[in-house]
Amino acid sequence: MRLDIYLATYYPEFSRSVWQKYIDRGYVTVNGEVETSTKRKLGEDDEVTFELPKKLDFSEDELPVVYEDENVVVIDKPAGVLTHSKGALNDEFTVAEFARSRTSYGAETNRPGIIHRLDRDTSGVILVAKNEETAHYLQRQFSQRTVKKMYIAIVKGEPKEPTAMIDAPIARNPKAPSTFRVDPKGKSATTKYEVLAADEGRSLVRLQPATGRTHQLRVHMAYIGTPIVGDKVYGTIDKRLYLHAHKLEVTLPGGVRTVFTSPVPAEFTDRFPDAQI
Predict the structure, then answer these.
(1) Which of 35, 128, 139, 150 is the most exposed place for a label (fewest CB within 10 A)?
(2) Domain co-membership, 189 together with 129
(3) What are the angstrom distances between the C-alpha of 82 and each of 117, 120, 123, 153?
(4) Cα-Cα-Cα-Cα dihedral of 229, 98, 92, 48, to 10°?
(5) CB-based contacts of 188, cutoff 8 Å, min separation 6
(6) Hey, is 10 helix, strand or coil?
(7) What's the CA gap between 142 and 249, in Å, rounded?
(8) Has 119 been annotated as catalytic?
(9) For 188, phi and psi rounded to 5 degrees?
(10) Where are the alpha helices (DSSP H) in 119-232?
(11) Structural domains of the chain, count
């Protein structure tokens, strides 16, 4: 039997994919020696042992809070922070870990409180639900597209039109499954953009997505020939990804329509001091 299958079979508290990661990280030994190959074939006399890492404690870590009540917490996420871990293994602080002690929604998962997400390198406003009723209430608004989102970005070059609607369906790229591309067979995706200022080969733009496809803004801006600066997947590497979730307009439980705002970072505005955001 393969090592990963053996572990998943006899220790089912972790999935096979999690055991594969533990093996890869050197936590499993066969006959007293570290084994990092998940495909290792075990014989009847082989002895398998493991020493898993202690669960990390993020209870002292903090994130900037824009607003909080009994139903939601709104966070000003810094660039570089994950919204949630991608699996059971979690070795870094995420928005979800920050929310874990504040929410009963998804408490036993790797994404407690999460109802929408921002890419790791995107900064700005993210909304977290504190209970299941609120989560479903907010999720309906996202699915019905009544949540309004506004981003500020710096792009390479200058779009041909000062303002326009990009209507281009998006699908996963089969040649690179972790990325996406414009594809006629993809899911509908629309983004309104407006150029706020342009200077020396770069433009400050306002982006308003009507849909919420993964990597939508990054894919759309690259599609029209003006990729977001610092987009190492669809553009070129820079000091950071210059994409910021500036405003989020949503109806809170109780029916109050509210706009939450994260100030645009100085590294966006310093280059365009006269821009009216």
Answers:
(1) 139
(2) no
(3) 9, 5, 10, 19
(4) -140
(5) 167, 169, 211
(6) helix
(7) 11
(8) yes
(9) -60, 140
(10) 132-143, 216-223
(11) 3
Residues in the chain, overall count: 277
Q: At what angle do helices 3-10 and 16-24 cross, to 10 degrees?
A: 130
> Which pLDDT score is estimated for 88?
59
Nearest to 173 by CA among 228, 234, 119: 234
Which of 32, 50, 68 represents a domain boundary (last residue)? Answer: 50
Q: What is the CATH number of the domain that holds 11?
A: 3.10.290.10
Which helix (H) or strand (E) segment is 72 a member of? strand 72-77
Q: What is the pLDDT of residue 221?
A: 98
CA 151 to the chain's CA centroid: 15
CA 154/CA 267 separation, integer angstroms:
10
Q: Do 167 and 184 fall into the same domain?
A: yes
Tell me, yes or no, if the pTM score tops 0.85.
Answer: no
Dihedral (CA of 131, 137, 142, 143) sign: positive
Rg (CA), the chain: 22
Q: Which domain holds residue 229?
A: 145-277
Check residue 21 and give its pLDDT. Answer: 85
What CATH code is carried by the domain that includes residue 128?
3.30.2350.10
Cα dihedral sign, 170-145-141-125: positive
- The catalytically annotated residue of 4, 76, 119, 121 is 119
Q: Which token pair is 222?
A: 């690259």
CB-based contact 215:224 (threshold 8 Å): no
Chunked mean pLDDT (size 10), the chain, 277 residues: 93 85 91 94 93 74 95 97 78 90 92 96 98 98 97 98 98 95 97 96 97 97 98 95 98 97 96 91
Per-residue tokens: 163 = 């303002």
